[in-house]
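Give me structure tokens for this 133-residue protein.
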Amino acid sequence: MLKYILGIVLITVLSLLGVVYFLINLDPNGLNGKELLIFYINLFLCLAGLITLVGILFRRTRSRFFFNWKMFKPAFRQGMILSGLLVLILFFLSKRIFNGPLSLLFLASGILFEFLIAYREKRKIYAAGVSKN
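Here you go.
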């Protein structure tokens, strides 16, 4: 378990350095598609790591028990969903096509996705031939 957390910390720090490099050294108006893609991937990894680590710390402080894998998976999943939504919102804001109904659609899709995954894990509903591990 500690290896996973150290891996997330390492990836978060490296992607944070990448995002800071992009923000300090490069002009956003002069970037081509590949550079923007690298920026958004770095931003996604940085946000996913930060949100996951915050979720892990939050679950650890609320629990009286030892931190286990069952606490790690929801924090990681929610970090990925939330960071994906935030990066999509920033992408649409940069293209000037983000509006109110689109924000509600993003919010509803993130919440629905989280509830469907949580329901599937609670009921142990998996596709044929797919195990939980």
